[in-house]
Amino acid sequence: MRRPSWFLKGTRKLLALFVVGGCFLYILKFHFGPEECDRTKMPYVDLDRVRRAQQYASAALQEQCRPSYVRKEMGKLFAEKYSMDISPFVRKNINEDEALFKYEPPFGFHKFLDKLK
Fold first, then answer.
1. d(CA 94, CA 91)
2. CA end-to-end span of the chain, whole Å?
3. pLDDT at 101 > cutoff 90
4. For the whole model, what pTM was predicted?
5. What share of the chain is helix, strand, coil (3-state, %, to 5)?
6. Cα–Cα–Cα angle for 61, 63, 67, nearest 5°?
7. CA dist 91 to 51, 82, 87, 98, 104, Å?
């Protein structure tokens, strides 16, 4: 099969070589550079901030859970989205709503009825 007579002649051939060469150099330069493979540099971490975060976390874990505080804060933060009466988690009698036990978690408590009692 013969190529057409106009296929990559003269300046078109030169332009095509420059474009392909430029793409090749772009790939080599930006994707295989030494700065990407340098694992010896460690990012700066403020040790005082880490220490304060650890102290705050350990103090929060030692505190006792206060449901009234959580209810009040959730009401403040999510006033239009959060309902104080989330029925499956607030009511003491869980046997009234059988729809809760039709589906598996996270939508229901299927196979967990005996554990919840």
1. 7
2. 82
3. no
4. 0.28
5. 55, 0, 45
6. 110
7. 41, 16, 6, 14, 20
Spatial distance between the Cα atoms of 106 and 88, rounded to a whole number of angstroms: 13
Place of tokens 């229901």: 108
Tell me how far apart the alpha carbons of residues 49 and 72 are, in angstroms, rounded to a whole number: 29
**Strand (E) positions, 23-94?**
none
DSSP 3-state assignment of 32?
coil
Q: What is the pLDDT of residues 6-49, one digit of tens each?
A: 666 778 888 888 999 998 888 877 665 555 555 667 777 889 99
Phi (first) and psi of residue 108, to 5 degrees? -165, -170
Interacting residues of 16 by C-beta distance below 8 A, sequence separation 6+? 8
Length of the chain in terms of residues written = 117
- pLDDT confidence of residue 51: 94
- Dist CA 84 CA 88 (whole Å): 12
